[in-house]
Each structure stands twice: as structure tokens, then as C-alpha cells.
Amino acid sequence: MTVHVLARHRRLFSSLAAFVLLVGAGLVVRWSMGYRPHFHGCGKHRGLTIATDVDVSPDFQRRRLVEDWNRTHPKEPAALIEVARSTDTTRSQIAAALDAGSCAYDVLLVDVAWLPEYAERGFLAEVRDSWMDDPADFVPQTMATGRWDGRQYAVPWFTDAGLLYVRKGEKAPGSWDELLRRGYAAQLENYEGLTANALEVIWNTQGAAVLSGDAGGVDVKTAQQILSGLDRLAGAGPALSASRAYMEDGSLEAFASGRAPLMRNWPFAFRALTADPRVGSGFDVATLPKPGLTVLGGWDLAVSARSEHRAEAGRLIDFLTGRDSQHRLFVCGGFTPTRTSVFDDATPCKDPKYTSGELPAPERFAQFATTLKAALYQARLRPVTPYYAQFSETFRGCVEQVLNARAGVRGAARPSPGTLANALTAALKGERGGC
Amino acid sequence: MSSEGGPERPNRGIQRLTVLGIAVTLFGVLVGVYHGWLLSRPWWGQVLFVAGSVGAFVVSVPGGWARVKAGFGRAVVAVAGVVKWSWPGLAAAAFAVPAVFVVPGLSGSGGCGADLRVVTDAENVASLTAAAQRYVAEKAEHGCPGMTVDVAGDAPTDEVKNGFARGWTSPDGEDCSLAARATLLGSQPDVWIPAARTIAEGMRPYGTCSAKQNPLRAKADLDIGGSVGSSPVVMGVFGDADRQDLAGDQGRQSLAALLHVFSADQVLNSVARPSPDTSDSALLATPVLHQALRNGWAGGDREPVEKILDQSRITAGDAASMLCAFRDDDAAGKNPPGDVAVIVPEDLLARYDHGDVLTAGTGCRSGPPSQKWRLFPYYTTDLPVLDHPFVHVRWPGEDTARRDKAVADFRKWLDGGQLAREGLRSVSGKLPTENGAVRSLRDGHVVPDAVPPHRLRGDAGCVGSLQEVKDCYAGARPAYPLSLLVDVSGSMANPVTKGGPRLGRAQDLALRIVGDVRPTAPTSLFLFSAVTRPETGPVASSGSEAARPGVQAAIQRAVTNGRDLALTTAIEQAAGRLQRGKQTLVVLTDGQAPSTNRDAAAQARDLAGRLRADKPGLRLLIVPTGPGDCGAEPVASIAAAFGPGSCIGRPQAAVEDLVSLVMADVFWG
């Protein structure tokens, strides 16, 4: 009977067999043509690894924290892998490794601007409650930097907000009009600092935090506001023209040398200036003039989704972001804490190797802590998008066009609101565009 | 003819032997061709070649062709039968099989959206960054957004070699285990484009750490491909020395002959090149320079020639840095050193004259130079031609098809002559039409249409490999002992204005200095503070290449640990541990404060006097890390006591530039 069935449906069974054989042969050929890796495995290792940029903090405080962890956790030693000073290079290393499925890194130091991209690409494990001691102690804005699509992917470690530094003998400007008229040392070289500084000018002169947080697109009205803010920047005093060649260290040098009596910079400058014999305590720190909006920077700690030591990595993050660790980073290392309680305890660094004068005086430091906390509560996120790198590059290109056009650079043209709106909207979606 | 196997047996035996001989010969040829050439061909080319080879074999065997024809006939009959009964299935397979090769999930993912990490010779960073930006923009336009290409400059060759051998970590004296801290040399490259193939071939990782022992320390796999563009190293002169009547036919003279005619006419008095410790173009040009200058200005050995080069008025870490310094001097209204010739790559000279970007970072002006600061290239037969090979680097834990495709795609794009727009010539040395910068040098000046790459030229025994080049260069510098005295007091924890703690800058300087001394030169490291006193001896020392990583590791491990130890006390204690003889003691410090260095001037005068008597060969060199410089007390008084040139203070200088000054002083000061 079976033979009879087979004979009757000879063509059907032959066709099926031929189809299966040919497709199977195709798959075999395709497999044989496939890539043969030279190395196998994801990079399994013993112990924990933390991928970061190079620690350039005073006295390498981050390294010392890891040493403390190793002393108290000999069965879960951690190794700090410092990639580079450049944040772009550090990002590139971490992204490439994780994209390739590497499990070499357990804990990642993540610039707040990269977090949406990393989370979107599946690089990060969701934070568990046990990885954060007393979550309510964190400054709310900083917790938001570790969140994407409603989920917490990172724990804030240290943060940044813009501050105004004023040489003694100078009066702090009472408004942005006055600040721009007098001019100040800023960071207007074509890198991320330009994005931060330009956004602050726009927000504060226009009284609106446009291009902040979830900025899905930019309409013409918003673009007009942005351009109005950039026009104010372009028309500012001579100190701002010089700032087009400055990053953080350039503006610091201009302020320390006396060329610029006013400076906008990050909190690290407080310690640097105190230790500079040309300055010492000869300056004051204030929040930016009202409304005092500033860009929220900072770095969070996350567990790699590829890590094979997630539980231990979580414990390490809990230790590093704990109150005691953050306090030490703040008073000894100049890092801005993300925990509110740390600001309220400005006990000086207890390290006996410092003489008086090598560290800020306790009263000055306490005053600085108060100012910094106030600035932090006025800090706003940059646009939160997985395509932040494209956005920042496009935005900076447009800013340069405005500045160059005002400076009379040949070929430069101030973009129209429509052009700017299109360029920024495309960039926020990861598409290429420009002014 | 044989009925019982007589004469036929020998015939069959001969036939079998013939077939065996042909098969073995063909197989051997195939294997050789396959590994040497065929592997680089596309897969269909390989199939055709193998099929053709097999066909040739079959035809060559006696009776083989007849058998093939008969077999072919039987196969045709069989296939006809299969088609008759299976044509519906075959028709369906005609659609399904191509899908296997096209559908992404089945065909394997492309390299779209990958983050590529590119490391290149430091002098090439600006060009490659510009090219990478164009590549990323093109990919985005063609439906592949989110791609990033990060370009960074590479470290000196010794560090790079160690890096490829040990997970791209900087030397830290560790074995295959991972210390509490490891510093990478930057992001691990997927693509490495060094200055020349000589450099690439000298980098074969020698490491003993396997991925199983420690994947974070394992060695890389290097696949050295072909060139992506070339650039001859040229002799550049300023306007006053631009004498084409002296040069004769461009590119037909040796460097020695060219220098001879220029110096005979008193047009040029000296030659400058970037530091070979950090500039690969300068390193590769050094054998020719030694040969040319020995025959011209210095005569005799290499050492006096190297002294002339090291003590040039123009010093810089690399050619880009040198040309950036020219732009700064031009902007400041200074006059160029018109009697000095500079040895730099043609593409950089062209970008300089064209006003293009020279470095990827900040701090270097752009814009064309004023007329008096223009540089004019002169070509020789023996200066090296940089051929920039493309090296595909694979790392344990990251070796995937997707990454492989991304690298291959970038390579294919570069192979289209994309670097011509950044000033490079073609692979064969021809000047492409798109190379506007070099073509613009033709404005009143001869620039050859072609400068073909050639083997490295110079003294015999100095050009056969990278190691030979480095040995000859190192051998031309004296092997005097060098001791480092590094301040680890509390103030060194504070930042310098360039960023980072002062100790960090001191460590960067110390690491470079140790890397630049001759491997056989005795090297010692002392640390000093109120807690760590030099009188107890050095924390590390070396007298060989093998022992050097130990000193480098000790430098990296240094931390601040106490209050100030007065500078004169520290110097005295360290000097007390040194032998007699010609040597240098380099002090790396932020200069401390007068309050912790009371009566420094008198103490320094007293100490200097005693040391001149006890150790007349000892030279002191203070290098402030910043923010203070040589004019700040107590450094100013101490330097004054030890004589002119006892302090080199450039707190704002890049580490490479400062170290080249320091080393020139260490070797010849």
C-alpha cells in the first residue's frame, strides 16, 4: 500500500526531496563561506573589571576607592581598566567591545550623554534595588540620567554643573546681559564643551530650557529661540571670542593668568585654582546669573548586560556610589556628589599629607558645597536620545556657522530657523543633516 | 600485450606512478598558490582556479578524457530523469536557495552600525579623521546610520608592540595576571595604519599570554594588508633657501648630494627632524640622515651626527607638532630659521602650506602660512616613502563576523584612493588629481608626478628591519646612566592647568623619558616625600631592555604619600646613592613652596659645590610639572646654584615635545 502511495505521488516526493536537498546544500555552502573567528569566547575572567576613562582626579581618588574595595573584598577583587583620557575614545572602546558581545567588562563608567544609546543597544543590565543604598538620597536630576524608556539602567556616581568663577575684586554679574557684555572665559572650542556652553546661553537668555530632556524634534519656533540665544553669544565681549580656542584647561589658564576675570567652568576648577599659586583663595564661586540654568553633566555606573558577574558587579556599584565613597570623592578628589546628604557634610579631607594651603579652607569648601548644590538643582539634561553623538556634532556645526558668520568668516552663513529646525530634528533621529 | 600480466603490468605500474606524480605535483603547486595568492581572491575565483586545475589533471591522465566524457553522458541522463520527476521542487528551490545568501538573518549581519576603532601614526591622525568623517557621512546617506569611527594616534613603537602582545595595555611589569589597575593605550584598534610596512612587520606580537590565561592580557592577531596610500618624506626649506637651480632634477639626487650642494652654496646650515622616539617618519629617515650627514657635515661616526640632529634649534615630538609651532611663530610675527631644512612627510608639508588642519586635537592653528613661512619640498632618491599599510587587528572576545565585515568595508572604501583628498599619493606613488594640497605645491616649484615606494635606504645593518633601525638609532646616543627623582608629596595630588594631577603629568614624562633612553643605560627611579626618602635607595632600577618594564611599572604605581621633603634634601639623598661618572639626575616636581624649602638658595649653593667636588660628572636637570615654572621659588634658586640649563620649564607643552627637549639635554647637554 505504501509502495502504491509512493508510486502514485512519485512526483510530489521527488520534488520535496529535491527541494530539501538543494536548500540544505545552499545552507551548507553558506555556512562554509561564513566567517571563521580567530578567537572564541567572550573574554571570561576571574574577578571584576571596571571600564573607565583615565582617572585624572586629584590624588587619583577613584583608584583609591577600588583599592579599598579590594582590601575589604579579597574574594571579589576588582581591576580598574582605564581606557583613555578622551571620552570619545573611551566610549568607542566600550561600545565596540559590547557590540561584539565581549564579557570582558563587568562595570561600566557611562557618560550621562551615552546612556540612552547604550540602553537602546542592549548593553546595560537593569538596575536592581540591592545595587543602590537609600535611593531617595540621590539628587533627583542625577537619577534621571540613569533612566531610559522608563527603566533604571545606571546609578549616578558623580555629576557636574556649570559654575561662575569670579576673581576677587570683581563683582559677580547680576544678569546674563551683564555677563555677556563683560565677557567671560568659556569653553567654545569645537567639542562637547561647545554644546554645553551654547545650550546654557540659549536657556538663560531665552528663559526656556529648549533642547533638553526628551526633545523629539525641533519646530521653527524653537529654532528661532535657539538662534536668538546664539546671536547673543556671537555678539558678546572679546573674552568670548578668545574662548573659541579654549577647552576646560584653556579657560582655566586664562582665568588663572588674569586675562579673564570671569570664567564659566565645571566644579573641578575650584580645587585646581585653589592649588594654583597665582590664584589660591583669590576668587569666589557663584551660580550662573538668574535664571541660573546649567547643563547637567556627570558619569553613572552600570552593569554590562554581557557580564557573567552581575551580582558581584552590583555590590561593587553599591559600594562605589555609597555615601562614604561619595564623600571621600568629594572632599579629597573634587568630584561633585550625586547624594544630597554628602553636600551637607563638608568635613575636609582627612589625609594628613596635605599642608594647609594645599587644600581649600574648611569654610570656603563649605560655602562652595552650598553653591554647588544650588547649581545642581538648577541643572538640566541635554537632549536625551540614542543618537546624542550625531545631535551634538550637528548642533555644534550650526553654532559654529552662527559664530563664524558674525565674525565675518568667508563662506559662513547664519542658518535660517527652518534650516536649523530640519537639521536638529534629523540629528535627534540619527539622520545626517547640517546647517 | 600480455595474457598473464607480463608486459601490461609494467605499463599499468608506470601509468599509476605517472598519475601519482602528477597528482602530488599539482597538489603541491595548488597549496603553494592557495596560501600565497589564491586566498586573497574572491570565492568564485578560487572555485574556478581549483576546477581548472582539476580539469587539467584529468586531461593529463592517460584515458582520463574518455572516461570523463562517458561519465558526463551518464550524468546527463540521470539529471534529465531527476528534472522530469522533481521539477516543481527544483523550481521552488530556485527561489529559496538565493534567499539563503541574501536574507540578513540567514546570510549573516553586515557591519552596519559598528563602532570602528582606528589607530594610526600620530602624524596621520588629522588626515584619517577627516577621511573617517566622510566615510561615516556616506554610510549614513546609504542607509547605515549610527556608524562611528574613532581615530587616535599610536604610542611609540615599543609600547605598541607590548600593547599588541598584552591586550593593548601599557607596560606595567605584570605577568599574565591582571593587576588592580591596567591602563590601555587607548581603545583597542580594529584597524591599525602605521607609517610604513617596516613598522607593521616589526610588530609581530611576541606575547605568551593566551586568551585562556587571561583574555584581557591576550595577544592580538595582526593581518597586514596592502597600502592605502603613500607619502614620501621630503626635505623642506623656507623661502630663502628655495633654490631649485641647485637641486637639479627633482628626486634624482641622494640626500647627501642635495645637502652638499645646499651647504656648499651656504644656503643651509643645519637639518632638523622630529624626535624619532615619537615620530615614525623621523625614525625611518634616520639611517639616511646619518649616512648623509656623516658624509657631509659631521664626518665619522653616527654619534656626532645624532648630536647635531638632537641639538637642532627646532625640536618637536612629531612633524605635525613641528609645523604647528611654525604656525604659532608665524602668527607671532617671528622670522623663520631660513638656514634650516626640515625632514617631514610630503603630505604634512602640503597640508601646512595649504592651511589645512594638521592635528585632530585643539591648539594648532589653521590657515596658510605667510610667504616667508612657506615650506618648499625637495625630493631625494633615498629618503623613505611612507606606504601606510592597512592592518586588520583582531582581539579575543571581540572577533565576530560583524566586526570583520565592518573592517573589510572600511578597507574597501579606503582602497578607492580616498586618502588622496587628504594629501596622500596612490599606492604606487603617483600624484592623484584629487590631491589638491600637494598639487598646489607646484605653484612655481617642481613636484614629481610619481615617487614610487622603495625599500628603506641608509647604512647597511640599519635598514633591514624595524629592530635594526631602532638599534642603530639607539646606538648613536650615549648610554650614560639616568636617574629620575619624582616628587610624591601631597601637593603633587593637585591639578595642573592642562588637566590631571601633577603626579600624573610627572608619571607621563617619566614613562616617556625611560622609554627613550638606551635600553642598556642604567636607569634608576627615586621617589621623595616626608615619608619616602631617597636615602633608602631607588624603588626600581634597570640596565637592560628586559628590566625596563619594572621601572615603568614602578612609575605607574607611584602615589602621593606625605608632606614636602625639601628639594635640596631630596637631591642630596638621591645623589648620595649614585655612583661616580657622567650621568643625569632628572627631578620631576611641581616646585613645592618656599615655606617648606627654607633657605633654599644657600643650601643649594652648598650642595652644588659639594657635588661638583665629589661627583663632577653628575648633571642636575629640574623639570617642573606646573603650574609653576623655572622662575618660581625655590626652583629658581636651586637651578641658579647648579648652573645654566639646570631647569627646563614648559608647563603648557605637550609631553612629547617637552620630552624631546629633555632628552636632547640629557644626551648632549
TrEMBL record, chain A:
Keywords annotated in UniProt: Signal, Transport
Gene3D superfamilies with a match to the protein in the record: Periplasmic binding protein-like II
Alphabetical list of Pfam families matching this protein: SBP_bac_1
Record bears the keyword Transcription regulation: no
Similarity comment text for this entry: Belongs to the bacterial solute-binding protein 1 family.
Protein name per its UniProtKB record: Extracellular solute-binding protein
The species this protein was found in: Actinomadura montaniterrae
Automatic annotation (TrEMBL), chain B:
Name of the protein this chain belongs to: VWA domain-containing protein
Signal peptide: none
Keywords on record: Membrane, Transmembrane, Transmembrane helix
One Pfam family hit: VWA_2
Protein's UniProt keywords contain Transmembrane: yes
Residues in coiled coil: none
Gene3D superfamilies, per database record: von Willebrand factor, type A domain (3.40.50.410)
InterPro entries: VWF_A, vWFA_dom_sf
PROSITE patterns referenced in this protein's UniProt entry, alphabetically: VWFA (PS50234)
Residue ranges of every copy of the VWFA domain listed in the record: 481-669
Transmembrane segments: 17-37, 43-66, 87-107
Hydrolase listed as a keyword: no
